[in-house]
Design goal:
The structure holds 2 protein chains of 2 kinds. By secondary structure, chain A is an all-alpha fold. Chain A is built from 9 helices and no strands. In chain A, helix 2 packs parallel to helix 5. Chain A starts with 5 loop residues before the first helix and ends with a helix. Helices cover 75% and strands 2% of the residues of chain B. Chain B has helices spanning 3-30, 36-40, 46-56, 62-74, 90-125, 130-144, 147-161, 177-211, 214-221, 226-238, 240-256, 258-263, 269-278, 282-310, and strands spanning 80-83, 86-89. In chain B, strands 1-2 form a two-stranded antiparallel sheet. The radius of gyration of chain B is 24 Å and the shape is globular. Classes of the chains: A mainly alpha, B mainly alpha.
């Protein structure tokens, strides 16, 4: 394997750290994230006791950011996993089978793509998170589920179209024709010959999609329909916006976490894609 | 395939997409687990709600309701927004929001293209050298920063710390062009940075490919200057992907700029969607989303027409069918 460049190592390291935080952050000796430190309101960055300071409510920002990792990363991975799986199955089948199924799938994808991501997500969240009794608040776990489902639905056409495009370029290759002429079953051809070839392209896009979902979740939280009470990075930004004038560092912390994560996923997506291009070039 | 039937087919495809989008939204509304009439008229009597149900077609089943909405929408009746004091026309809201969104979109596109095209040309010309690396890497980092983060940082620094620009609101052009621009600068910058990165990247890749073509070698051996080759001979055939992406992002900017519009209180179409959702104005939501999809489909058509102008070879070829 070729040696990675420094930015790639950084991206791997940062994402590794984020994964670690999201899985084991609760085991680490951080201060409780949803505890109000009444004596330390609006403490600045790098002060003793609160490394990244506190906000005007007295919440410790480092602990909040680490706890927010769990929500942001979990939602992103769940949505990309689900959306990627469903999207690829639909896209690969459409491109492999062609004909009417393909026409229908392409139309469905186009319908999904003709509404801006955020508008679609917003509409889905608002409908799915409506309680029968409209005055009753929606519990957080249900909000999380709704967010994941909505973002999954948003991702399906995006990833499905890419899977379809990649499959189209492979299903016409000689080895597929050869396999078919030898009487190999379609299901087996797809699993043996199509999926392994399409997978790298999908992995590259999946990295980018993780970034997209993290940003979408944050956007929804900023608009007040995502994760409430500062339990995700977006939620922290939503809460910090109120003190923007007096305590901007409350915003810097989640923004830096978010931006570094998205830069890392985008960069790794790029690395995977360029490996792919060079592999193609050798063929 | 003849040109006319190609266009007819293309338009038919887009119309089908439009119908399906609006029908999908309309179905989605039926999924709301509460009575829509109760949400729209929370304080009214059951009799009044009954009238509203009949008026909006809630009593007709999903398809009947959709057809009634569609009939009204096509005739320009986008429905009403209901609140305790009475009703407002959705079309009035859209009339107010549309110019804001359109101007925001146009400014964003102009700024993005004006910056991205020279950067793309330069980084393709110096591909692999230092200038290219600096441009590509810094744009890459910028494009990964979400636009709301840029918006908030601009508000903190430009708006609050130095107080150079107003942070909230929208001023129509009629009330002074400079005031208008002052309110638009920060939202436009927030929306542009990501686009600049995307555009530069697309243009760079296509230009690098075009620079390897024989006609470039030919032009160079004829003694044309690098500048002339780049701007006259390479830019145009390389700009297809860029223009496609630009046209598609126009559709996305109409309505997709929700967070930016709400941070800067620009109140364009995206904000109307948000407001409709927040106020549970489901009819307004349905009509507004339909308008957004209409724009998207329109710009898709523009891509098809435009690509024929930029690259005549594609005129008769089926584009992304």
């Amino acid at each position: 394997m070729r040696k990675f460049t420094k930015p790639t190592w950084f991206a791997i390291g940062w994402l590794g750290l984020m994964m670690f935080f999201s899985l084991f952050g609760w085991l680490l000796p951080f201060k409780p994230w949803n505890f109000v430190f009444e004596d330390d309101l609006e403490v600045g960055l790098f002060s003793s006791g609160h490394l990244l300071g506190t906000d005007s409510n007295g919440y410790d920002l480092l602990s909040s950011a680490v706890a927010g990792t769990r929500m942001s990363i979990f939602i992103a991975i769940a949505a990309v996993g689900l959306g990627g799986f469903i999207g690829s199955v639909l896209g690969i089948l459409a491109a492999y089978l062609r004909g009417k199924i393909d026409t229908v799938m392409v139309t469905v994808f186009n319908v999904g793509l003709s509404v801006p991501n955020l508008v679609l997500a917003l509409a889905l969240v608002s409908v799915l998170a409506t309680n029968v009794d409209i005055n009753q608040a929606v519990p957080t776990w249900r909000r999380v589920m709704v967010l994941i489902i909505s973002l999954t639905i948003v991702l399906i056409p995006i990833l499905g179209r890419i899977a379809r495009g990649a499959t189209l370029s492979w299903s016409g290759r000689e080895f597929v024709t050869a396999a078919r002429s030898m009487g190999m079953k379609d299901s087996k051809i797809i699993l043996r010959h199509i999926v392994p070839n399409v997978l790298p392209a999908l992995i590259a896009v999946a990295f980018l999609a993780v970034g997209v979902v993290i940003i979408a979740e944050a956007s929804l939280s900023i608009l007040g329909v995502g994760i409430p009470d500062g339990a995700s990075w977006g939620g922290m930004i939503a809460r910090g916006r109120n003190d923007l004038e007096y305590a901007p560092h409350v915003l810097y912390v989640p923004i830096v976490f978010l931006a570094l994560t998205v830069i890392s996923t985008n960069h790794l997506g790029d690395v995977v894609r360029s490996k792919l291009d060079s592999r193609e070039a050798k063929v | 395939m003849s040109r006319i039937s190609f266009w007819l087919q293309r338009i038919a495809q887009l119309l089908i997409v439009l119908l399906l989008v609006t029908f999908g939204v309309s179905l989605l509304l039926r999924l709301v687990p509460v009575d829509l009439a109760t949400i729209l008229l929370p304080a009214s009597s059951e009799g009044e709600r009954e009238i509203l149900r009949a008026e909006l077609g809630f009593d007709k089943g999903p398809i009947g309701y959709y057809l009634q909405w569609l009939g009204n929408f096509v005739q320009g009746d986008f429905g009403k927004i209901y609140f305790s004091g009475g009703t407002e026309e959705v079309s009035d809201h859209l009339k107010q929001a549309m110019p804001r969104s359109l101007l925001l979109m146009v400014y964003t596109q102009i700024l993005s293209l004006v910056i991205a095209v020279p950067l793309g040309v330069l980084s393709a010309y110096r591909a692999g050298r230092r200038a290219d690396k600096i441009i590509s890497n810094s744009l890459f980092a910028l494009s990964s920063v979400p636009n709301f983060a840029i918006a908030l940082l601009l508000v903190i620094f430009v708006g609050v710390k130095f107080a150079w620009l107003p942070t909230l609101g929208y001023v129509p052009i009629a009330e002074g062009y400079w005031e208008h621009l002052k309110h638009m600068i920060m939202p436009v910058i927030s929306l542009s940075l990501g686009l600049i990165a995307t555009y530069t990247r697309l243009l760079r890749a296509d230009m690098i490919a075009a620079l390897r073509e024989d006609y470039v070698t030919m032009a160079a051996s004829k003694g044309l200057s690098d500048r002339r080759i780049l701007w006259r001979h390479v830019l145009r055939p390389s700009s297809m992907t860029l223009l496609t992406s630009a046209a598609l992002s126009m559709g996305a900017l109409i309505g997709g700029a929700i967070v930016i519009e709400s941070i800067f209180a620009t109140y364009g179409i995206g904000f109307e969607v948000f407001a409709a959702i927040g106020g549970r104005q489901y009819i307004a939501l349905q009509s507004t989303v339909a308008v957004i999809a209409l724009f998207y489909v329109f710009f898709n058509l523009v891509v098809d027409v435009g690509s024929g102008f930029v690259d005549p070879r594609t005129r008769d070829r089926r584009v992304n069918a």
